[in-house]
Specification:
Blueprint (H helix, E strand, L loop, with lengths): L3 H20 L9 E8 L8 E9 L8 E9 L5 E15 L2 E11 L8 E7 L10 E4 L6 E2 L1 E9 L6
Antiparallel strand pairs: 1-2, 1-9, 2-3, 3-4, 4-5, 5-6, 6-7, 7-8
């Protein structure tokens, strides 16, 4: 028992020291972001559903805005119809909303690579279906009906 206490104290001191060292001086603070994996009804009625997985980080002392938006659309038989990846280069997080944009870096149709896309997300609570809102700035494909998944806006604004 006598050996356990010094080892425990040594481990506790090490853990606390590591925590303080990792925390740094706190000047960078947490980075505001939006993350999510959602299932939506695609604009093309011939398709069954679409899945979006995304994260967007606002510019901070830690670095420039970054992230990605990965989109897959599926045929009624479950086979992949189209895949698009957008690299996020701008993000703005305020309260429960996020706007972010970037350039398509991959398109399985190879028709929109290099085009800029904008996105809007609103975190209305859990689950995402019926509460959250997402839309893209691609002409004709605005607000999406979320039928599964969830998105979360991580905002660190002080409340009044």
């Amino acid at each position: 028992m006598k050996k356990f206490i010094p080892v425990f104290i040594l481990a506790l001191v090490f853990a606390l020291g590591a925590t303080v060292a990792l925390a740094g001086n706190g000047s960078a603070g947490p980075t505001e972001k939006v993350t999510g994996t959602i299932v939506t009804v695609p604009a093309n009625p011939a398709l069954s559903y679409a899945v979006s997985e995304f994260n967007a980080f606002e510019e901070s002392a830690k670095g420039p805005a970054k992230g990605m938006y990965h989109w897959w659309a599926y045929n009624p038989d479950g086979s992949l119809y189209r895949e698009i990846i957008v690299e996020v280069t701008k993000a703005n997080i305020e309260g429960d909303t996020a706007t972010f944009s970037g350039f398509a870096t991959y398109d399985s149709f190879d028709t929109i690579v290099g085009n800029e896309f904008s996105f809007y997300a609103m975190d209305g609570g859990t689950p995402g279906s019926g509460n959250d809102l997402v839309s893209w700035g691609w002409p004709g494909l605005n607000e999406k009906e979320i039928i599964g998944g969830n998105l979360t806006v991580h905002s660190y604004e002080e409340l009044d």
